[in-house]
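Fold Annotation — chain and its backbone

Fields — amino acid sequence, structure tokens

___
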Amino acid sequence: MAKCELCNKSIQSGHKISITRSHVSRRANKMWRPNIKKIKIVENGTARTIKICTHCLRSNKVTRAS
């Protein structure tokens, strides 16, 4: 499942709304998926692989393994 192991960000669902002539005519189900990457991190001196969203990766919440 696409889920960040740090912040638990996962798939969100809602409606995609098509608008015709200033009226909401139809609603279709839509899913917004997070941008999940599989990276190697260093934790307690050992390397392991986790799934992490790019927001957590950019904010330096983990240290990447070389």
User: Anything to note?
Assistant: The longest strand covers residues 23-32. The CA atoms of residues 17 and 27 lie 5 Å apart.
